[in-house]
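User: I'm designing a mutation panel for DNA-binding transcriptional LysR family regulator and want to avoid disrupting the core. Could you give me a predicted structure to guide residue selection? Please restate the sequence first so the numbering is unambiguous.

Assistant: Good idea. Sequence first, for numbering, then the predicted structure tokens:
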Amino acid sequence: MELRQLRYFVTVAEELHFGKAAERLNIVQPAVSQQVARLERELGLRLLDRSSRRVTLTGDGERMLREARAVLAAADRAAEVAAELVAGQAGVLRIGTSSGLRERLERGLSELRRTVPGIEIKLSSRPPGEQVEAVRSGELDVAFVRGPVTTAGVRGIPLWEEPLSVLLPSEYKAADGVKLVELAALPLRLPPRVEEPALSDRVLEACRDAGFEPLPGRAVDSLEDAIVEMTNGSPAWTVVYGNACEVSDGELWMGPFAPALSVPGQLVINTDHSPPCLDVLVNAFI
């Protein structure tokens, strides 16, 4: 199925006349008839009733007309976005990022470049609060952050759920997931809240829901350093996004919680001026 075939079919359905449809499309009538007939063969449906005097839509044709119009509208919008980018109206897309998003960014940006060839991407990594403020002020076009977005002048578009994993002494490992209440006696080490507010808030909330206040441990300024310290020092536990680190079998173990914990991942945009390629960007990262 080709967009050309859908466009010819929609035009015939609107004109109910092959000759008038050909004039509107500025092509010869046999070409219109051939492409619509080919579309019917490929779909295995009869879309039009034809006679020497008139053309009418079948029931299948009426349903297909709605779907064809939606497909053509989406294709036209993608073409408009590409034209804007090529013309330089939005040739540079400034994106705020967070730690641990490399795989998601590579996959999404690869799809974005495929859809909009030639777009220039500029990435900026900073704490979530600074990212949101940069989007609000116009310094960034969009930002990927974890957790809720409540700042005036911006809004978050939920795109994914980021699972949380626990990193802790191996004697606490559980193949079916670690229960938080079993960690009540161990110090909890988290990054400073200004750097990872969503992670800190979600973990503390879950601990309180489990019926305890976690013992505060030293802040995690570097995950690699924290792993070394936890391997060779006093027992403690920490929380990471997904599989954000690798630990060999031994002193430490990383795995899921039971029940599972996660935080929402969102695309933050300015409420007054979103980028022209927003639809393409969202679809690339879903």
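For picking mutation sites, this is relevant: The chain has three domains: 3-86, 92-159+264-285, 163-262. Residues 85 and 91 are 5 Å apart (CA to CA).
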